[in-house]
Specification:
- This is Tetratricopeptide repeat protein.
- This protein is about 60% helix and about 10% strand.
- The strands form two sheets. Strands 1-2-3-4-5 form a five-stranded mixed barrel. Strands 6, 7, 8, 9 and 10 form a five-stranded antiparallel sheet that branches.
- A hairpin with a 4-residue loop joins strand 2 (about 585-595) and strand 3 (about 600).
Length: about 750
């Protein structure tokens, strides 16, 4: 994104705030951070919302900005491929509109298209990438901030086109052009140049280039450290400098949330797996399998094949024979999705041959004793990958072995393989109608995890009525089809299904905001419920304001309620409620717990929020942080809970104040006046906040915050009280927004804001 755009962003934020769109203005500035810091749940909600509001406000540049950053979050660190292609193409078409194309950031849409093509099938789209990028770069000055990003993608495309030498030359030329223009290459451009050198068999030069880039600024500064570590490790491993490569390689818990580096990390690990420092375990195999599936779902077709090949080689090295064979098959089938397979067919063959020739490791005992040996194995140290191979000869014939074999396959990331085995045993034989409910549940889970929905529906059609609709309810719930889940759950319940059907039905009804029905379903079997179920029922009954059911639930878990009927409104101590913020983040609001699952917000919130002091909120009583072990820490611990919904708004209105801080005596008097009237007030500034003395320009301690008033208090009353409470202060306090609202002494407040630099 062009840096030229940031001045425009700041101006737009100010305009939106002045127009009353405070929440939109706050969210606007946070989108890049959400994309780079991996706050994707926020980004996936806020970016489309901002784009929609921008369209309504007829601000096409703002719409482009929001849509672009949403895509950066998807195709950057998350490395989405084909699933994002249509959205990127739409963004490019949008950027070419007459009212958008003059935006200085529109070349970023071309860069995004090149990235998503690379994510999908880099070599397969190499020609298209080069052609599109060349057209965008033609005549572009290196002074343009978009130049570096486009050049970086051009270098990457040359490497994927099998022209690493040209890529190195092009990168060097681009760096020189940037220097002439008084600009420095980005870390990303230098890192891509290092990749080109590595591909051109210049590992030493690649390491030198990457080391020289260490001090360069990155377009994605959050990702720089782990991306640099992965590339450095791969280069060092290629050079045979194993100890240094291991030291440079980021841990799995670091890279696990960053799909963009998974393939390169796996290649580095594969080169280092023979060393004593890197352990090739079934856990590694399970992770690589999860990553392979991720790229399959995201349309990262080449990454999926490459990971399958690497995972297969590692599986052979640790005698994971069955897994290596399945991975060879997955890699072979994956090549059919590529536009250009290249030498991948040969690599698949190079994996399949040793996999087919390998034998399983020596089993721990005779075939007839394997189920017992499996059950007796140490659950912590046992190797589930080996047990899959050892149980395979019995699986599909012996029911107990099949249960253990197939569920372990599912655990290791091969639910489709497990489902095939179970299917032959239960469905193909016609035994499914009389099968144990536990086996039906196992097979249902495997089919859901394998995303074989049609097959599950086929199986369900062979089951008795209750089991049929229970299986369908599980499927609908897993796919978040809530109305269908309710209908299937109702059928299952009517046919005599048990607590599992009630849980599915209740959870789906809650998702549909049918809280009374959701609570009723569980109340009917209150004595059978676990404590977790009871709390869920309490939350749903509270949302429906069914206080009788809330009291029954509280009695069941031993929570005393003083009142006998009507709404529960008691003081049960302070808690922290976690609520959504306009920027897609979260806010912690100090609140007073009034019931098992209700609390009243105690602090005033800025204008533009969907909640304020005085609001009664339903919360989930599951603690979001553990209670500290230290007794002293326990005394100061205010438990945090997640808000579910606003039950009843208090109708409070907030007013902002700002200015130089008064003396401690004046401030104490001010807070006492507010407390006497029951007006919640909160200071949001900290000790670092200062304002400017109007005559000396020296810094003064400052204070700003919000005061909230109930619905029966008029703005004029608030103005009058603030006037009386602060008239003797050495420095005046300003409440400009309130003054403008009632058109009283607006010029005085504007003067205070200007003179004190508020």
């Amino acid at each position: 994104m062009d840096v030229d755009i940031w001045a425009w962003v700041g101006d737009t934020q100010q305009q939106l705030s002045e127009a009353g769109n405070v929440g939109l203005a706050m969210a606007l500035g946070d989108l890049p951070a959400q994309a780079y810091e991996g706050r994707y749940p926020q980004l996936d909600v806020m970016a489309p919302a901002i784009a929609q509001q921008a369209e309504t406000l007829e601000l096409p540049w703002l719409e482009f900005y929001a849509r672009y950053w949403h895509l950066v979050g998807r195709i950057g660190d998350r490395a989405q491929g084909a699933v994002a292609l249509a959205d990127v193409e739409q963004l490019l078409a949008f950027a070419q509109r007459e009212d958008v194309r003059d935006c200085p950031a529109t070349p970023a849409a071309v860069e995004a298209l090149a990235v998503v093509w690379a994510n999908t099938d880099g070599p397969g789209y190499a020609a298209e990438r080069l052609e599109t990028l060349a057209a965008a770069l033609e005549g572009m000055s290196p002074e343009r901030p978009s130049f570096t990003g486009l050049v970086t993608q051009y270098v990457a495309a040359l490497v994927d086109a099998g022209k690493p030498g040209e890529a190195v030359t092009y990168a060097e030329s681009a760096v020189e052009r940037l220097k002439t223009a008084g600009r420095e290459a980005s870390w990303e451009l230098s890192a891509e140049s290092a990749r080109a050198l590595l591909a051109a068999d210049g590992a030493e030069d690649a390491l030198t280039a990457l080391q020289a880039a260490a001090g360069f600024q990155a377009d994605d500064p959050v990702a720089k450290e782990h991306r640099d570590g992965v590339r450095r490790s791969l280069i060092l491993a290629t050079l045979g400098r194993t100890a240094e490569a291991v030291d440079a390689l980021p841990d799995l818990d670091v890279v696990g949330d960053h799909p963009r580096v998974w393939v390169e990390w796996a290649h580095a690990v594969n080169k280092l797996a023979g060393s004593a420092q890197i352990t090739n375990t079934w856990q590694l195999g399970r992770v690589l399998r999860q990553w392979t599936d991720y790229f399959g779902m995201m349309g990262g077709y080449r990454s999926r094949v490459e990971l399958a090949l690497v995972a297969g080689e590692l599986a052979i090295a640790r005698q994971g024979v069955w897994q290596a064979r399945l991975l060879a098959h997955a890699a072979e089938s994956g090549t059919a999705e590529l536009r250009e397979a290249g030498d991948l067919a040969d690599l698949v063959g190079a994996l399949r041959t040793p996999a087919d020739a390998a034998t399983e490791p020596t089993p721990p005992g005779p075939l007839a004793e394997r189920v017992g040996l499996f059950d007796a194995a140490d659950g912590f140290n046992a190797d589930p990958e080996k047990w899959v191979g050892w149980l395979a000869p019995l699986s599909g014939e012996d029911l107990e072995a099949t249960r253990r074999h197939t569920t372990t396959l599912g655990f290791l990331g091969y639910p489709a393989t497990g489902a095939d085995v179970y299917w032959k045993l239960l469905v193909d034989t016609g035994d499914i109608a009389t099968a144990d409910p536990e086996d039906v549940a196992y097979l249902t889970t495997l089919l859901i995890e394998a995303r074989q929905d049609e097959r599950l529906e086929q199986m369900a059609g062979l089951l008795p009525h209750a089991a049929q609709y229970l299986a369908l309810a599980r499927l609908h719930s897993a796919r978040e089809r809530w109305q269908e889940t309710v209908e299937a759950g109702e059928h299952a319940l009517a046919a005599g299904a048990g607590l599992d059907a009630r849980r599915l039905l209740s959870g789906a009804a809650q998702q549909l905001d049918q809280n009374a029905r959701a609570a009723e379903v569980l109340l009917e079997v209150l004595d059978e419920l676990a404590e977790e179920d009871v709390w869920r029922m309490i939350v749903m009954a509270t949302s429906a304001e069914d206080w009788e059911t809330v009291r029954k639930g509280a009695a069941k878990i031993g929570m005393p309620i003083k009142s006998k009927e009507g709404p529960i409104e008691e003081e049960m101590g302070l808690i922290r409620l976690i609520l959504p913020a306009p920027d897609g983040g979260q806010r912690q609001v100090l609140s007073i717990r009034t019931g098992p699952a209700t609390a009243r917000l105690a602090l005033p919130q800025p204008r533009g929020m969907d909640y304020n002091a005085g609001d009664l909120v339903v919360f989930d009583p599951q603690l979001l942080e553990p209670v500290p072990d230290d007794p002293e820490e326990q005394q100061n611990f205010v438990p945090p809970f997640g808000a579910v919904r606003i039950l009843r708004p208090g109708g409070y209105t907030s007013y902002f104040f700002d200015g130089a801080a008064p003396s401690e005596e004046d401030w104490a008097e001010f807070t006492e006046v507010m407390a006497e009237r029951g007006w919640p007030m909160w200071v949001y500034s900290d000790e670092n906040y200062t304002v400017t003395h109007p005559t000396s320009s020296d810094p003064l301690p400052g204070v700003f915050g919000w005061v909230a008033v109930p619905p029966d208090v008029s703005p004029s009353e608030v103005d009058a009280l603030l006037d009386d409470a602060t008239e003797r202060w050495v420095h005046p306090l300003a409440w400009l927004d309130l003054a403008r609202e009632i058109d009283v002494e607006v010029e005085r407040h504007e003067r205070i804001v200007k003179e004190y630099g508020l």
